[in-house]
Amino acid sequence: MSSSGQHTRFAPDRGLTGRMVGTMFVIGLLYVGFTGLLIALLRGAWPLIVLISGGLFVAQFWFSDKITERAMGARPVTPQEYPQLHGTVDRLCALADMPKPRVAVANSDMPNAFATGRNPQKAVVCVTTGLLRRLEPEELEGVLAHELSHVAHRDVAVMTIAGFLGVLAGAMTRIAMYGGFLGGGRNNNDQNAAIAALVIPLVSMVVYAISFLLTRLLSRYRELAADRAAAQLTGRPSALASALTKVTGQIAAIPTKDLRQAQPYNAFYFAPALSARDTASQLLSTHPTLEKRLEQLARISAELGR
């Protein structure tokens, strides 16, 4: 994997690169190990398992950005429709010396933004109508710089793949359970089938739990890294801090039903879709606390002041 921020003026982040490589290595090992276990326990069905696991992985890698965009309601927009938005992205891309991603808008009152795409050439940066309505131009610039740093550091692709492998383990288990592969085929006696029926779901749960925790840890770190990179690129950490405070406060007031619909995609958002009451969710949140993010921006502000 290339070092974070390669070919752009976004500050490289070795801590982020190390964590991304480590996360992908561990999750890749888990995935290979889990597929190997399925092949060992379901000997007669191994060609189908390899086909399904390989096919799903390739599909995820190539189409994840499109799936995410569609699920989050992103619609590509032209510079004629949103001149200020495009202008800000153009300016930031020139400042960061990076290719301009596609620009999209999601029709949602929840003030938020996200970036997705497997590489900087295929990336899309999306903001909600709720965000555009509420933020001042310099606050919007801070949010967009944060999202563009995710694209430059390539952590979007890592998060997408890492998050998917846990889900894939569950999908393969269901296919094995309900596809009749645990029945007593020619190569399997009833005892083997019983062992497989017990072991596979347990291992699947462990794979999911480990990948869930690893992606949470990586996600929290990458959000702090994006805040840091955005503040350093724009030289205005206070504008980003102001946007963060505003967005987090306004999200808490969005109806719970709308927040629940957005929560599966929290790892991609600028700020998580959580109400003020979601304390349990905050413990397992994809993002560091608002206090921690503001603290870091205050430190950067002091450093820039010196």
From TrEMBL:
Binding sites annotated in the UniProt record for Zn(2+): 146, 150, 223
Leader sequence residues: none
Entry annotated with the keyword Nucleus: no
EC top class named in words: hydrolase
Cofactor needs: Zn(2+)
GO terms assigned for molecular function: metalloendopeptidase activity; zinc ion binding
The name this protein goes by in its record: Protease HtpX homolog
Species assigned in the record: Streptomyces kaniharaensis
Lineage: Bacteria, Bacillati, Actinomycetota, Actinomycetes, Kitasatosporales
Gene that produces this protein: htpX
